[in-house]
Amino acid sequence: MNTIVLKYGGSSVADIDKINSVADRIIEKKNIYKNVVTVVSAMGKSTDTLLDMANQLSENPIKRELDVLLSTGEQTTISLLTIAINAKGYKAISLTGQQAGFLTWGPHTKNRIEDVDTTRVEKYLKEGYIVIVAGFQGVNEIGDITTLGRGGSDTSAVALAAKLKCPCEIYTDVEGIFTVDPRIHKEAKKLDNLSYEETMEMAYLGAGIIEPRSVEMAWKYGVKLYIGLNTGKVLGTYITEEGDKLEKNVINNISIIDDILLVNIYLDNNSRYTTSEIFADLANNNVNVDVISQNIIKNDKKSVSFTTTLDNKTVIKEIFKDNDIEYNFIDNVIKLSIIGNAMRNQPGVASQVFSTFIDNNIDFYQVSTSEISISYIIDSKYKNKVVKILAKEFNL
What we know:
This protein has helices at about 15-30, 45-55, 65-85, 120-125, 150-165, 195-205, 210-220, 275-285, 315-320, 350-360, 385-395, and strands spanning about 5-10, 35-40, 90-95, 100-105, 110-115, 130-135, 135-140, 145, 170, 195, 225-230, 235-240, 255-270, 290-300, 300-310, 325-340, 365-370, 375-380. By secondary structure, the protein is α/β, with parallel strands linked by helices. The protein folds into two domains: about 5-175, Acetylglutamate kinase-like (Carbamate kinase), CATH 3.40.1160.10; about 255-395, VC0802-like, CATH 3.30.2130.10. A hairpin with a 2-residue loop joins β14 (about 290-300) and β15.
């Protein structure tokens, strides 16, 4: 075996003892692979600590300066981890995102990867070094330090693997991807194999274990992914093009997004604010809209409903207050999704879920579908009950 990219999250490098343990894991990989690149996050909650300090100084810190500040978290980790590996008798060198060749574009704190020039990484690999790279960061075309937003270290790791044409192993504090959140359903089963498509759907719909952009990139460039426990002692989940063709369950996963806001708008023929204008104003104010539905109440009146994240509530109030719009909020709701590749060839899944809801007196506000998922907007008070019932219904 030739090359591997590893990624360790913040919980895996939260203190000196854990950094030492990760150093041992990396050395074990070096004894298997000729070339080992490791991408790391900031230690524990250090990113939150840095952000809190900035917020103590300003209610609205300059985004460019936030990028400079937050990038120091990963830089602390790479230097400590490199020191630990060298102390154990192995050659290692640390690289910031810029030094590793990450060129990015977009707004500060939410940049995207444009390209990765791996010349320097490959040079050190040829010289026998274990290369330790700061995830979550890069540099834009004018030389400013940038960060990639939530889950950016996962994306950094996959981007490097895509460039180096090798697999990527992501290590965290959970054993892999489960059918259901084990904190809600203790009997949840670990999934040994998943397809890119299923995993990306899970990530977008709230599974939380991996960032959606990284799965999308892995799928695009054919990077084989593995997600597992940071100790390496338990087999995790492999993510490939095909996944598990022998998977017997129609449904593989139940995912949840908490803190959803349901917005209901009521319009008639005399409304001076059109549906298109409403959504244009939402977009102009960076309000990301998810599930949308429209119903005709009477011939001259209709309702338009959409979901978004709860933190957009104040912004939406400001948009609507001067436009004489009749609307209301329902804010104690969640988005619950059932996901499975086999759904595209298996009729009757929606009917089965509807029957389960009816039998257990559970109402839902909206429903949306894709080829391999069905999502429901329901009251958050039903969360644990619904998960357990559906897990039993679909043998998850």
